[in-house]
Design brief:
single chain, about 300 residues, alpha/beta, 8-stranded mixed beta sheet, two-stranded antiparallel sheet
């Protein structure tokens, strides 16, 4: 196990993707500005265009908030005139940034960060940059109690996290956004079973993506990590809280079963595991969260919330 700190030099840029939720994006910016390393970090803001005329005022309200963003080493803004959708926007703009930088930290407009989020992400990026088994980093974790005997501040699991995440250019380049081997995958029940070890929802989500029912960059990124035999590094104490569960959300439901304990942000140096292997305890905990039973419970709570 290795202890890593952040010296403020060579920090990864932050990419923030926003659409039409001005109240949420204001909170996200305030939390990000409160990060210990904010003043030393460059922020790239990507604001998508309205999907319909009804969204135009909300998009403009979001951009009025984004125009006030300060407190970073530099702020770069890119406001799209037309609507690209989240998947295209992330794939295109993260690819562009990783053509310029070795690594990038990515946020969306409904993710509150702890004050030590940037410390944790940059330390993980530094620690695992040469370890090809680590495909990505995530700042989110379920509220899982850490065993007394577990000393590290992070753990590995073979599922990407799309809420406050980071990766390197050489990993990102491995993504096959067309999923060109999907037909072979669908004909291979063993591979499907293996893919679902990262959560019982993954085969279903990939099928929906390939059949045009959803447009998700995240499940395709998940599949790329699976093919590479890679892992994601998760924090034992979440550095992310998702506040986006509402009818305004793009890809979330009303009932938020992902509410977690947000780190206080006081810790700034982290003990990171050297051995990148799944920990049985954390594997069981996360597989339970993505089990069919828990997902059905989520649907029932969502339905009840929509009716009330």
């Amino acid at each position: 196990m290795t202890k890593f700190g952040t010296n403020g030099a060579g920090l990864a840029p932050i990419a923030l993707f926003a659409y039409k939720r001005p109240d949420e994006v204001r909170q996200v910016l305030e939390a990000l500005q409160a990060n210990h390393l904010a003043a030393d970090s460059e922020l790239y803001i990507f604001s998508d265009g309205p999907r319909s005329p009804a969204d135009a005022d909300k998009v403009e309200a979001v951009r009025a908030v984004l125009d006030t963003a300060t407190g970073f080493r530099a702020v770069h803004r890119q406001y799209a005139e037309t609507n690209n959708g989240l998947a295209k926007s992330i794939i295109t703009n993260v690819t562009a940034l990783l053509g310029k930088y070795r690594s990038v930290i990515v946020l969306e407009d409904d993710l509150l960060t702890s004050p030590n989020f940037l410390d944790y992400m940059n330390q993980c990026l530094q620690r695992y940059k040469g370890n090809q088994r680590v495909f990505s980093i995530t700042g989110y974790s379920f509220p899982i109690d850490r065993p007394i005997s577990y000393l590290a501040d992070a753990y590995a699991f073979p599922r990407t996290g799309s809420w406050g995440w980071a990766t390197w250019s050489d990993r990102w380049q491995q993504a096959d956004w067309a999923v060109s081997d999907y037909a072979a995958f669908r004909a291979d029940p063993v591979r499907q079973q293996q893919f679902n070890q990262g959560g019982s929802d993954r085969v279903r989500m990939l099928r929906r993506q390939q059949e045009g029912e959803i447009n998700s960059w995240a499940i395709r990124w998940c599949y790329s990590q699976f093919k590479a035999g890679g892992f994601t590094i998760y924090p034992t104490e979440s550095k992310i809280q998702n506040i986006g569960f509402s009818t305004e959300s793009t890809n979330t439901n009303v009932f938020n079963r992902y509410r977690t304990r947000l780190d206080t942000g006081a810790q700034r140096t982290f003990m990171l595991p050297d051995n990148i292997e799944p920990t049985p305890y954390y594997t069981r905990q996360i597989q339970h969260q993505f089990s069919l039973r828990v997902r059905l419970f989520n649907r029932l709570k969502t339905y009840a919330g929509l009716r009330n």
